[in-house]
Amino acid sequence: MFIIIKLQIFQLIRVKLMIPETDFSIRYFIGGYDNNITYLITCNILKTQVIVDAAIDIGMLLPFIDSEPSAILITHTHTDHISFIDEYIEKFPSLTIIGHSDSANLFKRKNFKYINHKHIIKIGQLLFTAIHTPGHYYDSICYLLKPVIFTGDTIFVGRTGRVKSRSSSINELYNSVYHKILTLPDNIRIYPGHDYGKKLTIQIKENKKISPLLRAKDLNDFISIMKEYEMNR
Ligand SMILES: [Fe+2]
């Protein structure tokens, strides 16, 4: 059960209905194509469950799934993040797939719900804000579930995503990272789409400290830091 509403409307509804802050737990599963991570979020009040990305064999998640998860949030449609989507749907036929509107044609299914920037997704008591972050890929979405954010391949522990795809854009990545993610409160904790760093998750404040890619002075500086990063990989 979920609804998607725009931010302004959400603010009103939240005040009116006095929706309480909820608490939740996050399990992570590492594997897939390249240390990909699938997350399973469980609301500790209503026990609603939500999955982020279909990057891992469903069998790994099953021992931790109580009934049928409500939805799967897609961070972007690079193959490694959706490679097990058919298995997930086969196991849970009413699972709702949620992703950016530009990817609707990839999910020609009745149960695909598309979202855009700043849409709020309410699943039980879990309230996600969609932040469209093109750059690494055109349909990248970060899902903010305060105090955490699921960043897909937009930001990892220690660096940003890369811009090697046909639909990548370093200008857009700079804009997404610097104007949409790094402007969030410093204590927001990043849960990335791959386990590439020295640890699994990191707060924005600490990530800025350890990553030159997150301390660029401007777009040109970001481009030159990225060039250096790519040369030294
Ligand atoms: Fe990707």
How are the SSEs ordered, and which strands pair?
Elements: E1 2-6, H1 7-17, E2 24-31, E3 36-43, E4 49-52, H2 58-61, E5 71-73, H3 79-82, H4 85-91, E6 96-100, E7 112-115, E8 119-123, E9 126-132, E10 141-145, E11 148-152, E12 155-156, E13 159-160, H5 170-181, E14 189-192, E15 202-203, H6 204-210, H7 219-231
The chain binds fe (ii) ion.
Description:
It is a single chain. This protein has 233 residues and is of the alpha/beta class. The chain has a single domain (2-231), classed as Metallo-beta-lactamase, Chain A, CATH 3.60.15.10. Helix content is 25%, strand content 30%. The protein is built from seven helices and 15 strands. It has helices spanning 7-17, 58-61, 79-82, 85-91, 170-181, 204-210, 219-231, and strands at residues 2-6, 24-31, 36-43, 49-52, 71-73, 96-100, 112-115, 119-123, 126-132, 141-145, 148-152, 155-156, 159-160, 189-192, 202-203. A seven-stranded mixed sheet has the order 1-8-9-10-11-14-15. Strands 2-3-4-5-6-7 form a six-stranded mixed sheet, with no helix packed on it. Strand 12 and strand 13 form a beta hairpin. The longest helix is centred in the C-terminal third of the chain and has 13 residues, at 219-231. The radius of gyration is 17 Å and the shape is globular. The protein starts with a strand and ends with a helix. The model is unreliable at 5-20 (pLDDT under 50). The structure holds fe (ii) ion.
